[in-house]
Amino acid sequence: MSTARPQVGGDEAGPFATVNEFFHTCMGDHAPGLDERPDDRLIGSMQIGRTLLGMVAAVWLIVAYPLSSGREEFVLGKLVELALACAILLAGSIIGIAAFLIAGTPDRRRAFARRLLGPVVSMLALALGPAVTWLSLTTLKGELVSGADLMGFFSSIVGRGILCSVLSFLVLAIGWLLSIVLLIASIPFTILVAYICVATCFRASDVHQLLPALLSPLLVWSLFAFQVFNGPDVAAPPEVLYTFLLGGPLSVTALSVWEVRRLRSRYGITLRGALGR
Question: Fewer CB atoms < 10 Å away: N or C end of the chain?
Answer without folding.
Answer: C
